[in-house]
Design brief:
single chain, mainly alpha, 9 helices, about 80% helix, flat
């Protein structure tokens, strides 16, 4: 139900967004979305899937911690790699500035972390919280993109909308009372 509501709101906002951003902005944004999507699959080495099927909650928390650590390491390595401007130009034919780089890195790493957190909530059966998070963060993203687009922020506005979406999602999911974030590395040894 949450995704249906969000899709209806998104469809209603598309005519406004297409008037605020250029086709070039959308093209570069879609390339970045593709990179983030690939990173979210590969960066955590698919340990987020193990979180859902683990028998014990302590093991699931330990695997969540491992998944987050892997996303941070992979994101850090990728951020250093992406500092080389020739890689952006060669691979994607993009002229990438430092202003966009740090927004992209925050988007990249936080998206990976969100994948692990969502997997943990799926394991715990917090589907209502996940649905509410999807609607709230999606609306936040659309509002941010509309405001930044009206202020002529171009590509930064599209990226900022998604970054606010991911950060707000992480904030909402950390506030769930069942989500206790105290981990110990000793649990990993028992797995």
């Amino acid at each position: 139900s949450g995704s249906i509501i969000l899709q209806i709101i998104s469809i209603c906002c598309q005519p406004f967004l297409t008037r605020l951003y250029t086709p070039q902005d959308y093209g570069v944004f879609s390339v970045m979305q593709s990179v983030v999507a690939i990173y979210c699959v590969v960066g955590g080495l698919c340990y987020d899937r193990v979180i859902v099927i683990t028998k014990y909650r302590t093991h699931a928390r330990a695997i969540l911690q491992l998944t987050m650590f892997l996303y941070l390491i992979c994101g850090g390595f990728l951020s250093i790699l992406l500092l080389i401007p020739s890689i952006w130009y060669t691979l994607f034919n993009l002229d990438f500035t430092f202003q966009l780089w740090w927004i992209f890195i925050v988007w990249l790493i936080c998206s990976g972390l969100l994948v692990g957190i969502v997997a943990f909530h799926n394991r715990e059966g917090n589907f209502n919280e996940l649905s509410i998070r999807q609607v709230k963060s999606g609306i936040t993203s659309l509002i941010t993109q509309l405001v930044f687009g009206s202020l002529k922020f171009s590509l930064v506005g599209l990226m900022a909308g998604v970054v606010f979406n991911v950060l707000y999602s992480i904030k909402l999911l950390y506030q769930v009372k069942y989500f206790n974030c105290s981990y110990k590395f000793n649990v990993l040894k028992s797995i």
